[in-house]
Amino acid sequence: MKKFILTLLILISFSTITLAQHEETDWTVPELFEFHTVIADMWHVAYPAKDFDKLKSYVSDIKSNMEKINAAKLTGINQDKQEKWQSGLKLFNEAAEAYYTAAAQNDNEALLVAAENLHSNFEMMVRVIKPVMKELDDYHKILYVIYHKYLPEKDFKSVANVMDDLLSKAKAIPEGKIPARIENKKNEFLKSANELIKRTEDLKSLFNGISDTSSDLIISSIEKMHTQYQNLESVFD
User: Fold this and answer.
1) Which of 147, 167, 126, 113 is nearest to 219 (CA)?
2) For the chain: N or C, fewer Cβ within 10 A?
3) Dihedral through CA 219, CA 27, CA 16, CA 141, nearest 10?
């Protein structure tokens, strides 16, 4: 019985740790995605039908959802998107205000434009958070742990332990399917992706059989790798 209880406690502890790690690298912002129900109904039902009474009826729901989104805190891996989130949030709020004004003034043409802009800005907010590529997201999940967990603690042993996995993820990026919207930037993407591979290889090489590697060299290499990841991500802007 005691053995069973001990095993159960270990399993619960492991599950808790796994859940916490998942939440740290989960890009979802619940407050934003809860708004999708309203946006979808507005865009796919009321907007094409030009049902102006229905469009006006969304105002209360839009306001309450915008309040929640404005109060949302980016946690875990999403913290790296804070600057883009705030920039997009400003435009999103402006689009919402334009919607309220058009509805209050019974300006039907302005309301259609406002609905289109609100929908567009919602999609832009999703794009800020949603990974642009699975391969890039896979890399970022490991980089996040290195940069925000191991680096502050100077836990270089843990960094060394994930380098094989990180390099594998880096090499998968140029092989991934890029979004159609940046097809005209494919050469820029490939150049930046290959530079990220190089920066990752540079960091990995610091741990190859060298026991007296300077922590300053490791810190500098991690910073360069992180900067190059940001450069690659900016190709999608």
Assistant:
1) 147
2) N
3) -30
User: DSSP string covering 94-142, please?
Assistant: HHHHHHHHHHHTT-HHHHHHHHHHHHHHHHHHHHHHS-S-HHHHHHHHH
SS3 sequence of 35-104: CHHHHHHHHHHHHHHCCHHHHHHCHHHHHHHHHHHHHCCCCHHHHHHHHHHHHHHHHHHHHHHHHHHHHH
156: amino acid identity, one letter: F
Query: Measured between alpha carbons, how far is 27 from 23 in angstroms, rounded to an integer?
Result: 8
Instruction: Give 91-116 pLDDT, tens digit per residue.
Output: 999 999 999 999 999 999 999 999 99
**Count of residues making up the chain:** 237
**DSSP code, position 146:** I
DSSP type of residue 21? H
**Extents of the domains making up the chain:** 30-129, 134-234
Q: Which residue bears the tokens 């399993």?
A: 11
CATH topology of domain 30-129: Four Helix Bundle (Hemerythrin (Met), subunit A) (1.20.120)
- Give me 79's structure tokens: 């913290």
What's the pTM? 0.71
d(CA 209, CA 64): 57
| Tokens 């042993």, residue located | 157
Q: What is the DSSP string of 150-200?
A: IHHHT-HHHHHHHHHHHHHHHHHGGGSPPPGGGGGGHHHHHHHHHHHHHHH
Mutual angle of helices 156-172 and 215-234, in 10-degree steps = 30
Query: pLDDT value at position 211?
Result: 58
